[in-house]
Amino acid sequence: MNLAAVVLAAGAGSRFGGDKLMARFRGEPLLAHAMRAAQAAPVTRIILVCPPAFDAAIWPDAEIVPIASEALSASIKAGIAAAEGTDGAFIFLGDMPLVPHSIAAELAARLERNFAVMPRWQGKPGHPVLLAARAFPEIESLTGDEGAGKLLKARKDVAFVECADEGVMLDIDRAEDIARLENFGGA
User: Fold this and answer.
1) What is the C-alpha to C-alpha distance for residues 170 and 121, in angstroms, rounded to an integer?
2) Are strands 28-29 and 24-25 parallel, antiparallel or unpaired?
3) Which candidate among 45, 154, 167, 182 keeps its CA 20 to 30 Å from the CA of 25?
4) What φ, ψ does residue 78 adopt, rounded to 5°?
C-alpha cells in the first residue's frame, strides 16, 4: 500500500499560550515527537500542515503544506488534498507526543476494505487515524474546528485496534500538560 502521514500542526495553541508545538518536551520541540511517530509509520510520504511562517527547514524530510487557517477542518482538508493519489493517509496530531511508534503498522494491517482504522484505549478512540482513500472526498464536508470524529462515528466500516498504551489518547493542550506528561511512560 502507498500510504502518507499527515501531521497537523497549524493550530495557534491559544489554550497553551502560543507556540505550543515548539515548546520543549523531553528535551526537544513537542512537534518532534509527532514527526518521529509519523516517520515510524509504513508511509512513503510525510506531509506537515503548518502555518505559513513556520520554519520548514527544521523538517527537511516532510512535504510542507502551509495554511493560514487555524480551523482543524481546514488543516485536515489541506493535508488530505496533499495526500491525493495514495491508498490512504494517517492523521497524526502535532500535540500528541506519546503515540506508540508501533501502532501505525497495526492500523495499516487492518485497513483492507475499511473506511478508516483507529486505535482504541479502554473503549475510547484515539490517534492516529488511518483514512482509506475512499474517505478523502467525505473529508471535504468538514467545517469549522471539527475533526473527522463525527464523520467516523456515523459509519459502520471503521475498524479499531485495541491498544494497551494510553499514549494514543494523550495530548498537550495547556502548559501544565507538559509537566504532567513529562515523566509519563510511552513513546
Assistant:
1) 11
2) antiparallel
3) 45
4) -65, -45
pTM for the whole structure? 0.94
Instruction: Estimate to the nearest angstrom the gap between the alpha carbon of 27 and the chain centroid.
Output: 21
47 neighbors 79 (Cβ within 8 angstroms): yes
Give the three cell numbers for residue 101.
511508534
pLDDT in tens, 168-184: 999 999 999 998 998 88
Long-range contacts of 68-73 (CB under 8 A, 24+ apart): 69/10, 70/10, 70/11, 70/12, 71/144, 71/145, 72/8, 72/11, 72/142, 72/144, 72/145, 72/146, 72/147, 73/142, 73/143, 73/144, 73/145, 73/146, 73/147
CA distance 107 to 5: 12
